[in-house]
Amino acid sequence: MISSSTSSAPSSSTSPLPPSITKALVHYASSSNSTTKSMSFSEINAITTTLHLTPNPNFLIFGLTQESLLWSALNNNGRTVFIDENEYIISKFEQSNPGIEAYDVQFTSKVSEYPKLLSHAKEESKRDCKPVQNLLFSECKLGINDMPNHIYQVSWDVILVDGPRGYFPAAPGRMSAIFTAAVLARSKKVGKTHVFVHDFWREVEKIFSYEFLCEENLVNNVDQLRHFVIKSETENGESFEFCKSSSPSKIV
């Protein structure tokens, strides 16, 4: 499913809040005591602070969550794109929230398969699973290559990995989302990308973040959220290593 629009900023500081912000804040306030709430105030604040560092940021989010409307509203002057595994949920979300840009992707992996997928990526680090590549044509088993073509051309300022599901062995897991975020960040033409990974208490999130986002790029940790800053590598020639210092498959 595809839907997109361009949000406009308020004309002055005294103008009413845009409807998207009003709706999001009301939604979030009304559900703040819900057991399905996935992020703490500190985690949300950490991401919001980073969003505000860049004028009109490009914000890519893996996963539709309790905070989705909030992210879209907070990035009112930038571009926010959601990627989720569930076509039906994407469709319903777009219908209820005109102007949202969201796409469904087929995740064929399973959490239980992560050791095999990690081994494959390491073996193919100089070929299909390179840190810098055009993912649209990637043959790496961890690379997401079925997003709309234009998504690969965007220089993403902030990426949040908060999906797909990863809390049981048969779930798709976030292996591909983390790997794809790492490659998108390193393959952008210039600059750096802030990558956030949520639910860091889980094994997959820890192992794949340290393997592809790298401990040396970790700049902050808040509750179960980790914040990595990845620099573009396209100006420094071809690289076959994600991390300068070796801390493979570290679990802490």
UniProtKB/TrEMBL annotation:
Keywords: Membrane, Transmembrane, Transmembrane helix. GO terms for biological process: plant-type secondary cell wall biogenesis; xylan biosynthetic process. It is found in: Golgi apparatus membrane. It is a single-pass membrane protein. One of its GO terms (cellular component) is Golgi apparatus. Its main location: Golgi. NCBIfam families: A_thal_3515. This is Polysaccharide biosynthesis protein. The gene is 25494449.
